[in-house]
Amino acid sequence: MEESQLKTDTKIVIIGGSAGSLEVLMKVLPQLPDRISFALVIVLHRKAGDDSILEELIALKTAIPVGEVDDKTPLLPGFIYIAPSDYHLLFEKDGLLSLDASEKINFSRPSIDVSFESAAEAYQHDVTGILLSGANSDGTNGLKSIKKNGGIIAIQNPETAEMPYMPRSAAENTTPDYILDVDGILELICRSNTI
Amino acid sequence: MIYFDKDLQERALELFDGSLSKLGYLALGTKETIKFSPIQKKYKQLEKEKIWKKVS
Predict the structure, then answer these.
(1) Which of A33, A161, B19, B47 is deepest in the core (most CB within 10 A)?
(2) Which of B4, B8, B30 is the best mutation test for A, with the most CBs of A within 10 A?
């Protein structure tokens, strides 16, 4: 993609998580407003397979429409996008999402680092990255990129996360803007809403 | 096709479209779509499958 192409001014809240993160989402999602001014992107480590159980589960918990993610789907504010199983989810500067089936990163596909780094590069300071519970170090490098590009980074409090390893790795290797419990995460997302 | 950028995808889709006769089927990869392409209006999708029938 050429550098000269204008990026959109869409704001993005991107949430990465692994083991123990779905419970957090199940608490947060029902409390979000139905209309959001940003695009909410969710990247969870999930089983490979051609099912859409995660998408259906999330759609049940929120009135925010869940957009189907195909390659080159436009990323629009007001929608939730979920990284499909077995693909890395990438962001293009012209406002499209793209998918990539190349090798796993941090034993994971989708990899949180891949999406965070790609979002940071394409959307710079318009990105808020939130890393939840998990049991490997995916997400740490991605948060670093978001921070470096002027975005905001938040980490689920490792003390209260079901699986502390992932948020702890990020807390020790980045300079998070926030370390939050579930309520704080909800508040941060709500504060990003300008509707 | 997912490794093509949007412009190249569009060119590929136009080639497929040009080579396909009416009532023929276009099958893409599981995460590929013609939803955002101008050729879409000539096609009808089979349920939720990534298969489209050329209808005009």
Answers:
(1) A161
(2) B30
In this prediction the ipTM stands at 0.85
Identify whether A110 is preceded by a cis peptide bond (ω within 30 of 0): yes
**Domains, chain A:** 16-111+121-182 (3.40.50.180)
Taking contacts as CB-CB distances below 8 angstroms, the residues of chain A near B9 are 72
Judged by CB atoms closer than 8 Å, whether chains meet at A72 and B3 is answered as: no
| Model pTM score | 0.92
Distance (Å, rounded) from C-alpha A55 to C-alpha A73? Answer: 16
> Which residue of A lies nearest to B35 if distances are taken between CA atoms?
A73
pLDDT tens, position by position, A87-135: 999 999 999 999 999 999 999 999 999 999 999 999 999 999 999 999 9
Number of domains in chain B: 1
Does the residue B1 lie in any domain?
no
Q: Which two tokens stand for residue A111?
A: 């990899």
Under 8 Å CB pairs connecting chains A and B tally to 33
